[in-house]
Structure formats: C-alpha cells, structure tokens
Amino acid sequence: NKMEENSGKVKPFNRNDEQFLEAFVIFCGLGIQNTQMYEAVERAMAKQMVTLEVLSYHASAAEEETRELQSLAAAVVPSAQTLKITDFSFSDFELSDLETALCTIRMFTDLNLVQNFQMKYEVLCRWILSVKKNYRKNVAYHNWRAR
C-alpha cells in the first residue's frame, strides 16, 4: 500500500508502481554487478602487474653483467672489419657470447642508432644482455646458444 500525497488516503500499488519498482531493482542489480566486475578486474590487473614485475625481474640482465659489458664496450669494441661482420662469408659460430654482444654493439654504433636515438650505453648493454638471456638455448638458429 501507499499513501497519496494530497489526500493522505491509503491506496494499493498499481501497475505503474510495480513497473517503477522493477526498473529500480534492475538498476540496483546492474550497479551491484558493475561494482563486483570492477573489483574483479582490479584484482586481475594487480595480479598481472605482479606477474609482469616478476617476469621482468627474471628476464632482465644482471646489473653486474651489464656493468662489465659496458666497461668493456667503452674501452674496446673491435671494428666491423676486425670482427668481419661485413664480410659475405661471416659466420658467428666462432664467436663467444661476449664477442657476439660486442658485434651487436658495433652494429648499433656503425648504423648510428646510438647517436640518432640518444641511447645510453648502459641501457643498450642491458638490453643486449637481456635479449641474450631470454633466447632459448635449444633453438639451433639462435645466435646465443649453449656451448
């Protein structure tokens, strides 16, 4: 039952009232469902961020290894002719992992990528070592392989 505002009489609910209440209940249900879905998405995003952070940590090169390559690269990166990377008969099979990393630095330097993109040597060295670290060792055609 409901009370009319003007007369103060008690009247039963009519079809219009039922439809209004039904629409309000649907609205409230959608609001609750939206809130629950938003919370579930927030939890999933938090889990994803933690997972990506863990994977990123394990996929990145070690700081010490990066510093070693950076100091070596700053001191001596052989020329492309010395490394023979411009020769048609170039083969990387004779190169060690360190020499392969130095070849990569030489290619970036000779192509002016370091200067054009204003790369920091530390970032370049870390990226090269991270790529090396994430190469699968059981794939024959990858340059960084198990020896």
Element layout with pairings:
Layout: E1 2-3, E2 10-11, H1 15-59, H2 63-75, H3 80-83, H4 97-110, H5 113-116, H6 121-134
Antiparallel strand pairs: 1-2
Helix pairs in contact: 2-6, 4-6
The figure for the number of domains is 2
**Cα-to-Cα separation, first versus last residue:** 86 Å
Topology as a string of helices (H) and strands (E): EEHHHHHH
- Summed up, the helix count is 6
Main beta sheet: 2 strands, antiparallel
Strand content: under 5%
Could you list the spans in which at least 5 consecutive residues all have pLDDT below 50?
A: none
**Secondary-structure class:** mainly alpha
Kindly state the percentage of residues in helix.
55-70%
* Inertia-based shape: rod-shaped
What is Rg? Answer: 33 Å
Number of beta-strand segments: 2
Mean pLDDT: 86
Short description:
This protein is mainly α and 147 residues long. The protein is 64% helix and 3% strand.
Written account of the structure:
One of its GO terms (biological process) is signal transduction. InterPro entries: GAF-like_dom_sf, PDEase_catalytic_dom, PDEase_catalytic_dom_sf. Residues 65-147 form the PDEase domain. This protein has 147 residues and is mainly alpha-helical. The chain has 2 domains: 2-59; 63-134, no CATH class. It has 6 helices and 2 strands, in the order E-E-H-H-H-H-H-H. It has helices spanning 15-59, 63-75, 80-83, 97-110, 113-116, 121-134; strands spanning 2-3, 10-11. A two-stranded antiparallel ribbon has the order 1-2. Helix 2 (63-75) crosses helix 6. The longest helix has 45 residues, at 15-59. The model has no long low-confidence stretch (mean pLDDT 86).
